[in-house]
Amino acid sequence: MATRALITGITGQDGSYLAEYLLNQGYEVFGMVRRSSSENFGRITQIQDQVTFIQADLLDQASLVQAMRESRPDEIYNLAAQSFVPTSWRQPVLTGEFTALGVTRMLDAMRQVAPEARFYQASSSEMFGKVREVPQNELTPFHPRSPYAVAKTYGHHLTVNYRESYGLFAVSGILFNHESPRRGHEFVTRKITDGVARIKLGMAKELRLGNIDSQRDWGYAGDYVRAMHLMLQQDEPDDFVVATGRTHSVRDFLEIAFGRVGLKFEDYVAQDPRFMRPAEVDQLIGDSTKAKTKLGWQPTVDFEQLVVMMVDHDMALLGS
Ligand code: NDP
Ligand code: GDR
């Protein structure tokens, strides 16, 4: 019988790649979706017919219990969240409800309905925030710098706590930034590659950004969902950092992205205070030695390949 996976956040960037990956591995995939007045399946149209959708919401405990009853999952991937850092200052309470308490609701539903299942929590490098050491590994203390990061830190600790309290197979993947042509348009990488394509194609004249000196350890989402799956195949539940081990500034990203279409970013990029954050995370760089040695995980796409992949995608998308 096929292994059954329940994915929350299946309509998001990571959910779409993970669903494709698990279907290719022969899984039966159940996707949790929340009700909306217009369908939001843009990233999963290609696999829509192979997934069983269940309507539920992280805010509604009864719906989560019912989703687990219906899917009877062997593996649960909790990817749903309010995931955009700036929105977390505008909607701190809602972010806490989705991104922090949503984890409690999921874990408690699992404890009641599917205690034998394996649970993956989407933790984040944002928990390291104002970093205490460089590079960051599984033992680095947290110093979150946004309501989003604080909420993720709660979800992280709760996952560990449910593992220790109830013996659940519950793990956290501390994933550093990962991007793709399916990245939401408000995140800086996609905003840049979409902007580059618009400028090159004569549809825009400039690109307005916030702090272009911040540095991130950027990888490819398609690589990172493999690590999520591997974490649930281990004998013992454990937490892992997943990162490339290299850091680049937003400025580096701009240089390669504009360079790809023969332009210089200095001629088009303007700084706009609207995109500056009340508290910034200046530099992140992850040490994923543990994932490499214990999971046998390696990234396959480097920074330059990632930027080029995203620019070429947006040029084709907007140019067609
Ligand atoms: P996205 O923002 O692309 O996707 C978020 C998903 O969560 C969407 O499917 C969204 O559904 C769903 N969702 C939001 N609120 C609710 C709710 N109340 N009930 C049910 N579903 C909800 O995120 P990513 O795919 O980029 O990230 C996946 C997870 O990994 C997130 O938890 C994120 O915080 C975390 N993460 C991401 C990293 C990255 O670099 N991408 C790095 C580290 C962690 P809808 O389509 O209806 O809006
Ligand atoms: P991040 O991603 O906050 O790291 O969270 P984002 O792409 O939003 O920002 C990265 C860096 O770029 C700077 N920046 C801008 N960011 C945005 N969005 N828009 C701009 O115009 C802009 N100009 C400069 C930011 O200040 C920041 O330093 C992502 C999300 O996917 C989280 O859910 C996830 O947990 C972390 O990555 C790891």
How are the elements arranged and paired?
Elements: E1 4-8, H1 13-24, E2 28-33, E3 51-55, H2 61-71, E4 75-78, H3 85-90, H4 92-113, E5 118-124, H5 147-166, E6 169-175, E7 178-179, H6 188-200, E8 207-209, E9 215-216, E10 219-220, H7 221-231, E11 240-242, E12 248-249, H8 250-260, E13 269-271, H9 289-295, H10 303-319
Parallel strand pairs: 1-2, 1-4, 2-3, 4-5, 5-6, 6-11, 7-10, 8-13
Antiparallel strand pairs: 9-12
Helix pairs in contact: 1-7, 2-4, 4-5, 6-8, 6-10, 8-10
Briefly characterize the structure.
With 320 residues, the protein is α/β, with parallel strands linked by helices. The chain is built from ten helices and 13 strands.
Describe the structure.
The chain folds into 2 domains: 4-178 and 219-242, NAD(P)-binding Rossmann-like Domain (Rossmann fold, 3-Layer(aba) Sandwich); 184-216 and 247-285 and 300-319, UDP-galactose 4-epimerase, domain 1. Helices cover 41% and strands 16% of the residues. It has 10 helices and 13 strands. The chain has helices at residues 13-24, 61-71, 85-90, 92-113, 147-166, 188-200, 221-231, 250-260, 289-295, 303-319, and strands at residues 4-8, 28-33, 51-55, 75-78, 118-124, 169-175, 178-179, 207-209, 215-216, 219-220, 240-242, 248-249, 269-271. The radius of gyration is 19 Å and the shape is globular. The model has no long low-confidence stretch (mean pLDDT 98). NADPH dihydro-nicotinamide-adenine-dinucleotide phosphate binds at residues 8-9, 11-15, 34, 36, 40, 57-59, 79-83, 98, 122, 124, 175, 177-178, 184.
**Which of globular, elongated, flat, extended, rod-shaped describes the shape?**
globular
Which ligands accompany this protein? Answer: NADPH dihydro-nicotinamide-adenine-dinucleotide phosphate, guanosine-5'-diphosphate-rhamnose
Output the CATH topology of the largest domain: Rossmann fold
Average of per-residue pLDDT values: 98
H and E order: EHEEHEHHEHEEHEEEHEEHEHH
Beta-strand content: 15-25%
As for the number of domains, it is 2
Give Rg in angstroms.
19 Å
Please bin the fraction of helical residues. Answer: 40-55%
- Number of H/I helices: 10
Q: Name the poorly predicted regions.
A: none
* CATH architectural designation of the largest domain: 3-Layer(aba) Sandwich
Main sheet attributes: strand count, strand direction, barrel closure: 7 strands, parallel
Number of strands: 13
